[in-house]
Amino acid sequence: MKIGYKLFAEAYEPKEIVRQAREAERAGFDFVEVSDHYHPWLYSHGHSGFVWSMLAAAASRTETIHLATGVTCPFMRYHPAIVAQAAATTALLSDGRFTLGVGSGERLNEHVTGAPWPSVTVRHTMLREALEIIRLLWSGGYQSYEGKYLSLDDARVFDLPGERPQIIVAASGGRSAEIAASHGDGLFATEPASDVIGAYAQAGGTGPRYCEVPLAYAKDEAAAAASAHRLMRFGLTGWKVQAELPNPINFEAATASITEEDMHAAFGCGPDPVRHLEVVRRFTDAGFDHLTLMNAGPDVDGFFDFYATELSGRLVGS
């Protein structure tokens, strides 16, 4: 079992994200994961720094903690050749402490280039092609590729790490779980869905299984639920909504009926470790073995202390 921390880049400015990566290492986390977004989800967030700059800075200011994108869409806002180069460089800067998390994208981030937003079926095909291009470039030398949607013309990544980063593929259903098995080194999910893990295993997937566990630490439950509502209510809309809406104003509208009581039911809220462990068990019981703790509470450093003193020993031993 590996325990990670989600760096909430939409809610904090870039220097603070780097500081939190360093503090997560001190608290004893195995890895940190940071989203690769262009826009924040909600007006209350107010930030969305460039992930590759933050990862490079975090790599230079940490020593042991592993770093991951959670997740990058490697085929619209970026060409996969750029992702291949960025991931290789980050792996070198971190001395091999980098994992590339990828997915089929959200309109929130990818529409900014003006390209049409494809159907999920097309995006899955584009994701397969993007991963083929990335692995081709990581094999060394000059490479070309001609797919249905993506192409590569005589390109080479010159600086490659001796050991290529693992690629963890986000999945929310059977089709994406199959891509994780056939084109990835592991699975990533945001819900405690054992059927997704089952589909991944049935398709031949044997790698690590990452998830994001929704928690909100505060000294009382009401403050924790209020903070979770302010920061994370978009998470209760579900993947079919999250993938399709283009801007924060749309998520403000889509989350207007979500209450603090809804957040309290979905999140581990407050100071009681037992409640937090109950939420964690939803994911371990489903079969996940890389738990990314996502704190939506108001006190980041308080959560790090809470993890170190109240959660760490129980989670590692679970």
Give structural notes:
It is a single chain. By secondary structure, the chain is of the alpha/beta class. The chain has one domain: Luciferase-like domain (TIM Barrel), CATH 3.20.20. 45% of the residues lie in helices and 16% in strands. It contains 13 helices and eleven strands. It has helices at residues 14-27, 51-61, 80-93, 107-110, 120-138, 174-183, 194-202, 221-232, 239-242, 248-254, 260-266, 273-286, 300-316, and strands at 2-7, 31-34, 66-69, 98-102, 143-146, 151-155, 167-170, 186-189, 209-216, 268-269, 290-295. The strands form two sheets. The protein has an eight-stranded parallel barrel with strand order 1-2-3-4-7-8-9-11, surrounded by eight helices. It has a two-stranded antiparallel ribbon with strand order 5-6. The longest helix is centred in the middle third of the chain and has 19 residues, at 120-138. It is globular. The model has no long low-confidence stretch (mean pLDDT 97). Residues 12-290 form the Luciferase-like domain. This is LLM class F420-dependent oxidoreductase. It comes from Actinomadura vinacea. Keywords: Oxidoreductase. It holds the Pfam family Bac_luciferase.
